[in-house]
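During the reporting period the student researcher (J.K.) took over the structure-prediction task from the postdoctoral fellow and processed the backlog of single-chain submissions. One of the processed entries is reproduced below for the supervisory committee.
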Amino acid sequence: MMENTRSKAPRPNRLVTTIFYLVILFLYVPLIYLIFQTFLVNPNSWASGFTLKWLLRLFHDPNLWEPLLNSLQIAICSATLSVALGTMGAVGLARFVSALPPILQTLIMLPILLPEVITGLSLLLFFLLIKLPLGMTTIVIAHASFSASFVYFIMVEQLRKLDPQMQEAAQDLGAKPSEIFWQVTLPNILPGVMGGWLLAFTLSFDDFLISFFTSGSGVTTLPLKIYSLMRIGLSPEINGLAFVMILLSTSLVVVLLSSEKSRKWVLRGKG
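J.K. obtained the following structure tokens:
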């Protein structure tokens, strides 16, 4: 019986496996090449030798660190605002999602489907209409306006997994709606909140088009700074900055998935 069971075990499909590794190769070869260029004396010459001067020069270049700090501040603020708006919308509409009219569902999904150039232009015209000075505040509002839709759909899925009897039990015990949310609902959907926050942070941090329309002349984000430098010519410090960001992102993923408990918490929403 054991031999028959082993013989019936599904064999790996070589074609599917090959396609998978080709896709992984397609995704990661550019990143590996960028990292390799970071340590070349001449990024355009493979035989120029290796050096650390581009990384060392990066840490002494305030022209790149100021836009990086701006992007971090904007991403943190917009992600927090997006999570607040998306979570409130999802909690308020969770019971009626299946009954929502198609036009309302379309309006909620529209910020995701619209091209960013249209979103950026419409936001710019709106800020000019209400005479709100362009700067960091307008970028935060603009980023949150389209990130909130992503958070909303993530939170709707988290709320669908939540057992409604838990909220009913808390209500029968005399808990107020605010207490039910903070003590019952929120702790159980916290993995979705963190996932939505990280997604909104990423969308805001690397956004270019919407930032281009809504930043004005007083604030420069990292994508805008990199674009301005690339128009002048390739700067090796940019490769060093990209390497640092890749290293930090990889370290965050490794830390989150390093233990079984955190892996379940991130991937499944279980403690």
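The committee noted the following: Residues 125 and 214 are 9 Å apart (CA to CA).
J.K. will present the remaining backlog at the next meeting.
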